[in-house]
Design a protein that fits this description.
heterodimer, A: about 230 residues, mainly alpha, 13 helices, about 70% helix, B: about 100 residues, two-stranded antiparallel ribbon, 5 helices, extended
Chain lengths: ~230, ~100
């Protein structure tokens, strides 16, 4: 894999240093959750190998947790699969948003697809120019991939984990997303899309299966239909 | 758990991820569609924040996370570095849980 910037350039760039520092923090939080995934998965009847392959290939935390929880509770494979697939669907929406920033060789794009998740998309979108977007996407995606798989292996073998909630790690992700969202809110239409997306999601949570509210939040992008330049004329 | 289940889920998850990237690919999109797609991160990340803060599964729930994320909002507003916003969010949540 070729990073779009040299390592030295990343280190000399204040914006990317922030991305790096945040990735290590988020990575550690991810790792703790991964340990608990490893434990849950093995307890639900998966082998250590199956648990690790899930993290290596599926690499969508929410889907993986949902699948092993349903199976562990005695649910059918079909219901475990359906719920997990619904949670994985939003990554296709992220792909649509990231595609213009991930142009390049087909092989690179196929690799980029595997790390197209909440965190990498959010971190990329929070950057102000194309070069930083690309770099932030790869740095975030790769570091989360590393920590997620390392944690899974540890949890699957060890069979015991600390509760991420004790350290407030379940709040680390929404907190990070707040910080990533912040620069986007300066633009009026992004702020409007964010407000509508949040409201749609909140309204749908009690009434739709898990995963659906986030997908429906994408409807908020219709605020981009009117052309701002035409409106000025 | 069967291996068939593992690989079916892996194929589905990758299929979703690659779908968006391939669908748009190198294509030049109409300006209107470009404007809409550019708003996806804002809409979905805002949705993720409220889901992760106020819900557990299909239930809405107000707990220590709301205070932690509230503190994170203040930190972001005060232009704190990303890493500080994350740590503040987690620490306030953990502290409130330990206290109650």
């Amino acid at each position: 894999m070729r990073l779009p910037l040299g390592f030295e350039k990343i280190w000399n760039d204040a914006g990317l240093r922030q991305v790096f520092a945040a990735c290590v923090t988020l990575g550690l939080a991810t790792g703790v959750f991964a340990v608990s995934f490893g434990v849950t998965s093995v307890a639900a009847g998966a082998s250590v190998a199956q648990t690790c392959v899930l993290s290596l290939l599926v690499f969508t935390g929410a889907s993986q947790f949902s699948a092993v929880s349903v199976l562990g509770a005695g649910g059918t494979a079909a219901s475990a699969f359906g719920g997990a697939a619904l949670l994985a669907a939003r990554n296709s929406v992220y792909g649509l948003a990231m595609a213009p920033h991930l142009k390049g060789r087909l092989g690179t794009r196929l690799l980029a697809a595997q790390i197209t998740i909440d965190e990498s998309t959010a971190m990329a979108a929070a950057q102000s120019d194309a070069t930083h977007r690309r770099a932030a996407f790869w740095i975030t995606g790769c570091s989360i991939y590393l920590f997620w798989n390392l944690g899974t292996l540890i949890g699957a073998i060890l069979g015991s984990a600390i509760d991420p909630k004790t350290y407030g790690l379940d709040a680390a992700f929404p907190a990070a997303f707040v910080a990533m969202l912040w620069p986007m809110l300066r633009e009026r239409r992004s702020a409007l899309a964010a407000a509508i997306g949040a409201a749609l999601c909140l309204a749908l949570i009690p009434f739709t299966p898990v995963g659906v509210p986030i997908l429906c939040a994408a409807l908020a992008i219709v605020v981009g239909i009117p052309n701002p330049r035409e409106a000025e004329q | 758990m069967s291996w068939a289940f593992v690989f079916a889920l892996a194929a589905t998850a990758y299929g979703f991820k690659v779908l968006g990237l391939v669908l748009v690919g190198e294509r030049q999109m109409p300006a209107m569609l470009d404007r809409c797609l550019a708003l996806i991160p804002a809409a979905l990340i805002a949705a993720l924040v409220v889901k992760d803060t106020f819900s557990i599964g299909q239930h809405l729930q107000l707990d220590a996370r709301a205070a932690g994320v509230g503190a994170a909002v203040i930190a972001a507003w005060r232009k704190a570095p990303l890493i500080v916003v994350i740590v503040v969010g987690a620490m306030v949540t953990a502290a409130l849980r330990a206290a109650t």
